[in-house]
Amino acid sequence: MQRRMRALRWLLLVGALPLSACVTTEYARDPVKDQPSPESGSVVLSLTLNTGEVGQFDQMQLTRLQDDGARQSGFDQRFVLSNVAPNLSRDTSLFVGALKPGTYRIKQLVDFGTNRYIEFKDSNVALVGSFTVETGKVTDLGRVVLTAANFNVLLGRSARITSNEALIRQYASDYAALYERGPARTWDVAKNEKDIAELFALVHPIGATGFSRMSDGQIVGGTRMGTLIRRDSTGRWHVAGRTGDLEAITATTVAGGGAYRIVAGGDMGTLFAADGEKTIAALNRGNLPGGSIFFINASPDAKTWVVGVQQAKAAGLYWSSTLDNGNWQALVRDSIETSVWSGARGVWAWAYPGGVGYASTASKTVSCYDYASAQWRKGGVPDQRRLIALSASPEGILGVLTGTNAGFAGIFASTHVSRDCGQTWSETHSPYKVKAAPPIVLPSGTILEAGGVFGDPGIYASKDGQAWTKTSDQGRLSDRLWLFPELLLAVNGGALGVETIESSTDEGATWKRELSSIDYAVLRKQLGSKASPQ
Hints:
There is one protein chain. With 534 residues, the chain is mostly beta strands. Among the domains are: 2-200, Immunoglobulin-like (Sandwich), CATH 2.60.40; 381-528, Neuraminidase (6 Propeller). Strands 1, 2, 3, 4, 5, 6, 7, 8, 9 and 10 form a 10-stranded mixed β-sheet that branches. Strands 11-12-13-14 form a 4-stranded antiparallel β-sheet, with no helix packed on it. It is globular and about 70 Å long. Residues 1-20 and 339-344 have low confidence and may be disordered.
């Protein structure tokens, strides 16, 4: 059964289903920047992901019902809508195009960044529904949601976001003129009650990140679908608030000296304030540059705020003396690798007592900014090698994985630890000949390092970086790991799109699964007694 489900997942997310014998594509013109046919109408549609297996989609392919006769005889015509806002966010795409009159259905999605295609079966297409394009009119389809769901993929319409006008006016104002052409059309029929994609995604959001520890020991973090989650002292997870839209929460901080209990940042650059229970509200972002927020921190007196903003080709840190309607100024900014939207980031930021740290692959920089002096303490990458990955302890002790400029991690990589913000480094001589992850320095001083790319999976531990002992046969360490005084938290986005949150209270030797994106009630109905959360 597991082998069959893996094959199904591969088919849906990696390769398109077999197409008709003869397929032609017609690219929709931009209704504002190009000169489309006067007979055409315009279509506006946004799409949000609840999965980490694909990136922001570049194209959406449609079929037209008027062409069904030709399709049955072996001729298939596709109409291609392009993503007009590739810098909008990591998870949300905005498709706009001019199409000839007719009735259309969604058929395929394309992500060039991960080279993946999703071709939808007729049953899923029928569930989503069709829409009609009329000459000179705008059809606004609101938001659709793509979610991983128990080893499968669901596409469905959003009941929360039924219009894209606000999104366009804020992030793609060139297209606001489309809404001056009169009332917009929408889907031909009401949302089907069996269309549960958005509901499933809201109940099982994927992408947990940005964890912070509250003064009472509870831990808060963000995830997709506008959801703030909270871990209580017993290890149980709760929804701590929803933003009301579908923007992923990508960073949090606990501001002890200010007016906000919790501050969060979103994938589309929104700042939020939350109480950790249920209330969460958007703040005025002032002149903060657009992009995905990947880091938030404040000085102990909450008079200096630092926010990390990530765009398609650049990322950096910005500071302001106030959070709400702040006057943001750049602290540092660097170019980043083009694969950033698929999960790899070329910059890192971390908090330590009294300041924040920053590192960059492009500039080979490791630096620390002190709140009290408002000065940078600058270091560098070991031997000016290429920075691949970085970890930081709550005390600001760094572990890095570096490689040569001409090779991948593996046999060309090395691992080092720094206790003075990159001014000096000591190499960790773990038993792994193939380095795959940066070392993690725990609050106790123990150094952990994971490997096992080509064998010997697990975790080794050391007190000095020289003598090592294997403590686990399961390699759980990654850049999605958070260190707290009493435990480690790891977010694992494993095969088939399933995400789990696990904890360790014995320095990574054993792990307990606390939360999973699998809906076991549904899975039991599918597999019977074979399904178990254990």
